[in-house]
Amino acid sequence: MTQVTFGPVALTGAGVFNRGSMAGDGPPCHNPGLIPVRGLVLLSLGDISGSLVEAVQVSQQAVVSPDGGRRGRPRATSRHELQAIAVRLFAEQGFEATTIEQVTAEAGVSERTFFRYFTTKASVLWADFDTEVSAIRAALAVVPDDVPMMDAIRGAVVTANHYRAEDVPEMRQRMSLIATEPALSFGAAEHYADWERAISEFAGRRLGQSAESLYPLAIGRAVLAACRAAYDRWSARADNDLPWYLDAVLTALAAGFEPAVLRDAAPPSPV
């Protein structure tokens, strides 16, 4: 289990890390508290001392029946491997044209294994997104009350996003499918609403208002819109700096997009 602390940075089970850009690649982080660590992002905010967020990464393996009467231990396929195969087939053949049977045949597993990991074909594209929403909720639940609201939101969102450079091609395929497949449009609205609600509920608690009240609702929608812009630019550039984009855009949002803040956050190349 990887532990993330706000304040003094604590890291368990990770390799060497450097403050600044990931692997020396991409724009430097203007916030010295943001530390990408081989795909894991730790955000140190001075006011969040003593609070601990645990990011649990589920690594599951399914045992399937032997292929073609093969003897010995059955082949095991992880959730991530099955997801990658499904996304590739969706991109090549189209979402509607690809069946679950085709996905499982390509992976060499049973349909029972597929449904152990995913409830529907569409859930393949949203599984990581839903995990991110849960991580954001968990992080916001333990932030001390004296941490400024927008700092807390920024810290939770950045910490929940730790995609590596090698994940970018699959992420881009998933985002493209979600944006272009009509069958996924309704599902997209539902998932984005859940993400937005995680922010609005936290803002409502801070403001002493219902999550459906004007200001909490506006904060949730503004943060979601800003983060979607960050996702789009990160996907288009195909680099490993999603945490930088999220940190920059949420810092700018909290400052009301003050020009001086935008200049300070500007990367060395156009975004």
Index terms:
271 residues, two-stranded antiparallel sheet, globular, disordered N terminus, Arc Repressor Mutant, subunit A, mainly alpha, Tetracycline Repressor, domain 2, two-stranded antiparallel ribbon, 10 helices
How would you describe what is shown here?
52% of the residues lie in helices and 8% in strands. The chain is mainly alpha-helical and 271 residues long. Strands 1-4 form a two-stranded antiparallel ribbon. A two-stranded antiparallel sheet has the order 2-3. A two-stranded antiparallel sheet has the order 5-6. Strand 2 (34-37) and strand 3 form a beta hairpin.
CATH superfamily annotation of the largest domain:
Tetracycline Repressor, domain 2
CATH topology name of the largest domain: Tetracycline Repressor, domain 2
How would you characterize the largest beta sheet?
2 strands, antiparallel
- H/E series: EEEEEEHHHHHHHHHH
Oligomeric state of shown chains = single chain
Please state the CA-atom Rg, rounded to the nearest Å: 20 Å
CATH 2nd-level architecture of the largest domain: Orthogonal Bundle
Detail the poorly predicted runs.
1-74
Average pLDDT works out at: 75
Total number of β-strand segments? 6
How many DSSP helices? Answer: 10
- Kindly name the structural category: mainly alpha
